[in-house]
Amino acid sequence: MNLISRPTDRGRQARVIKIERILYPKGLSMEAKAAMKLICTGILFSTLLPVLTAIAQAAPRRIEVTAKRFEFSPSEITLKRGEPVVLIIKSADVPHGVRFRELGVEVRTGRGEASEAAFTPAKAGTFVGQCSVFCGAGHGKMKLILHIVD
Amino acid sequence: MAKFAALIVAATLLSLLLVALIGIQVLGCKADPPSRSETAIMNWIKHRLLVRGKDDKNPLNDSVADGKEAFSHYCVACHGLDGQNTGVPFADRMAPPVPSLAGKDVQSYTDGQLKWIIDYGIWPSGMPGSKGMLSKDEIWSIVTFLRHLPPAGSAGSPEMYSH
């Protein structure tokens, strides 16, 4: 095992020394070395940026719904089963909320504020969310339809 | 035959009601407490004829807390936090007076009938209909709450009457 790994180790060491020579040539001052390090870090991050963006895009889908007496806008949303989402309820007037009794999901928000809830739809079907904060004469008719598809 | 007899009784009661209504016209429209017989007749008519939904079943169980919250939106203004008029200053000044929801007259309705009453209200009492103002689930949860009312006076008075 050792016999096999030794040449590889030696090879790696050689490579490391080579890279160090390129990055930090002999005879450079401390300041220059520091500057080199900074530039290298910069290059590294700029190459990573697209990767980081891709990771951010893979984060839960965010769906914003505006609540206004006495309707949600949009009033219907379609989600994919198993795909994590963040549901944001933004009030355009008085305090509102939405509750999907069957899914155990509820978001409540204050006057003119926005609140959110993260969840992953586990079952397919059509679910009706009701406004969960009493908001006046049309409160009982304020519905948000959620379609969950496979 | 029994049906025919029931029809006769209903017709008689309705004509009595008509006479009573004409009587009200003659006597004026003061909100005096109704007489015992008037109450008894109206109760019978409401339970047997006017209030529908007798066979509708409550689809929600375990919704007492939801019902308590839904009840607090505006029902408490007339019925009090305990559903027994605690702290409601005008409860016995209405005609008919606001009933105790824990009393036999109300509790003897079926769940479906209570839902119907909350949906459509009761004319000509002060009870309004809440269909559309409250969601179906909220109304059913109120029915559940009505079956689990707290002891009279234990929930305090509605905030609006304490300042």
Description:
The complex is a heterodimer of chains A (150) and B (163). By secondary structure, chain A is α/β, with parallel strands linked by helices. Chain A contains two helices and nine strands. In chain A, the strands form three sheets. Chain A has a four-stranded mixed β-sheet, with no helix packed on it. A three-stranded mixed β-sheet of chain A has the order 3-9-8, with no helix packed on it. A two-stranded antiparallel ribbon of chain A has the order 5-6. The radius of gyration of chain A is 28 Å and the shape is elongated. Chain B is an all-alpha fold. Chain B has a domain at 53-153: Cytochrome Bc1 Complex, Chain D, domain 2 (Orthogonal Bundle). Chain B is built from seven helices and no strands.
**Strand fraction band of chain A?**
25-35%
Number of helices of chain A: 2
Can you list the strand order of the major beta sheet of chain A? 2-1-4-7
| Count of beta strands of chain A | 9
What is the CATH topology assignment of the domain at 53-153 in chain B? Answer: Cytochrome Bc1 Complex, Chain D, domain 2
Shape call of chain A: elongated
The whole-number mean of residue pLDDT values of chain B reads: 92
Q: What's the overall geometry of chain B?
A: globular
Order of helices and strands of chain A: HHEEEEEEEEE
Topology order of chain B in helix (H) and strand (E) letters:
HHHHHHH
Structural class of chain B: mainly alpha
CATH superfamily of the largest domain in chain A: Cupredoxins -  blue copper proteins
CATH superfamily of the domain at 53-153 in chain B: Cytochrome c-like domain
- Which protein chains make the most extensive interface, counting residues with beta carbons within 8 Å of the other chain's beta carbons? A-B, 11 and 13 residues
Largest sheet of chain A at a glance? 4 strands, mixed
**What is the count of structural domains of chain A?**
2
What low-confidence regions of chain A span 5 or more consecutive residues with pLDDT below 50?
A: 1-5
Structural class of chain A comes to alpha/beta
**Given the structure, what is the number of helices of chain B?**
7
Cα-to-Cα separation, first versus last residue of chain B: 59 Å
